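Q: Hi! First time doing this. I have a protein sequence and I read that you can turn it into a structure. Is that right? Here it is:
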Amino acid sequence: MQMRDDVAVLVDRLFQEKATWPALIKEIRAASGVDISTAEKIALSHEGWRRLCNYLINHDSACRKQAVWHMKHHGPDSLIALISGNFVIIESKVS
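A: Yes, that's right. Below is the predicted 3D structure, encoded as structure tokens:
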């Protein structure tokens, strides 16, 4: 899947503006017409968002809880893995 340039600019702008995760996903979906799962993959293909999410799922209890739910709900298709006791965002294949 190829990410359009305008969506990449949007994702970067929202990162710079410190947007919330729900706002980010909503904006990606509105701009590109994709489902939630694809919007999450697009968001996590951005280095800054991926780095921030990796930090938050290991240091914020609410984010950790969402990570556990995501892993249980998505199983082998999860975007998150537990490696040596740490949650890790699996690198997205969106370019």
